[in-house]
Amino acid sequence: MGENCVLKYGDSKFEQEVIYKSLELSPCTDKNGFNAFDSFFGFDGGLDDVSHKINQYYERIPSFLIPIADDGKGNLICIGVKDGFNEKIYFWYHENELIANVMLNEKKYGNIGLDDYWDNVFLVSDSFVERKRSYLINKDRIDFRTLPFNMEKGCID
Fold it and tell me: How many CB atoms lie within 10 A of CB 45?
């Protein structure tokens, strides 16, 4: 399931639970070092459309991250779109948002801008292709690298 598949097929969910290893551990990382992956967002104009997600999270995630997927638990998987972050994949943890900390009157967050707040953002991989290679289908523990993956199409054959 690569960027070309998302463009072609839109919103995509897996039939089995899919997990992946991340470069940085988040509060959602399990004891074996895996994170859950639920679905890619699409381009069909629905609730899981990328442009809808951008608008939905506009004031909640750093401006140079674009939500492309989720973990099924309210957390996002994003791609960086600015120098230094470009094409890197990040996990955004919704339980520790800046706006919630500000609303709780946490003084240390009073003067921090959203683009400078990284307490709830974790690096998954340095590129989309690297991330695709880290998937495992949880039920059978199938390493993503063993699946018939067509790098040219960006899809699992």
Answer: 10
